[in-house]
Queue: 2 jobs
Job 1
Amino acid sequence: MGMEASAKRWEILLVEDNPADANLFQMAMRDTDDIRVHVSCVSDGGQALNFLHKRAEHVEAPRPDLIFLDLNLPIVDGREVLERVKTDLRLVDIPIIVLSTSGSKIDISQSYQRGANSYMVKPADVNTLFKMIHECRCYWFQTVVLNS
């Protein structure tokens, strides 16, 4: 990797209402030698939309390179956040990874129909979660080319 690639700091928005899950995600997403990451975390769909539209306390919010979205959220449900982002021309190109405890075929199907770029079921095991997040980092930040 060249100097330019390693100097990039990736912006991630995590939309997660469970503080323990949010902490685990942030630990798993920590900087490594080859990938620098900044995670912003909000705990409900209303905050996510404010963050993305730079409203209220989020006027200085960075534009995320990637969004990790839980489905079952207070205020505004994750399904609605997904639909609103993917129908907004200013936000549609930000990849959204649904990260949910639900492995329901309906949730998976509806998420992809609403424009999710990936759907991951949260594993109960911490080591499996860390492995999943590591693979996700490699894929999104080293393998594919993002529009950022």
Job 2
Amino acid sequence: MSISNTNEPPVRIFVATAGGIGCQLMAEALGRSGWGFSVVGYACNLMGVRMAVKEDLVDIALIDSHLKDGSKAGFDATRSIRSSNSKVRVVMMVDASEGSLTVDVFRAGASGIFSRDDSFDLLCKCIRAVHNGQVWANSKQLQSLIHALAQAQPAQATKNLGKNGLTNREQGVVRLVAEGMTNRDISKQLNLSENTVRNYLFRIFNKVGSSNRLELARFAWDQEEAKGHREAVVE
């Protein structure tokens, strides 16, 4: 399956994996895929990634969690992209056995996580979805993420959300979303109708710039991480 629309500019992709041959083969495959991709470069290490995104010619960075710099260098590369160029969206590739890394992938700033065991056609769909502003994860990875959210301490993560214009009630809704509750669960917990909960979420998404629950969770994590940095400075 492929798509090609001459009315749209190509999706500019940068590829980063641990092996040079692997990078080149992936770049060639994406360029020939018929999905409207243009591979603008590839690298095997963190320095190569940092140099590429500075040129502002990349839409999607496809980054392997393993680079030449180490088994977790892909996370450093993702954080570097996030801090230097917010326009670049990252899809991180991981082994199927690394499901426990799902939370770390999104915390690092990726918009998608892709298992190396999945098909190339699915990878193309993933890249397109992330380019269109969606968050990508398979069902197993989502389950891992929801489990992590349920085990988290949401009160700490949402303590500073009021600075973004959220009311106390909206902060309470965010806390329950972070616990993995559905709209129905939240409505019962707060004694509200489901329609009212949906309205709250609509306003929350607009205020914090999120479009779905996963992005809202990432926002909460950002607040928690920023709070941790501030406390470290004070200490």
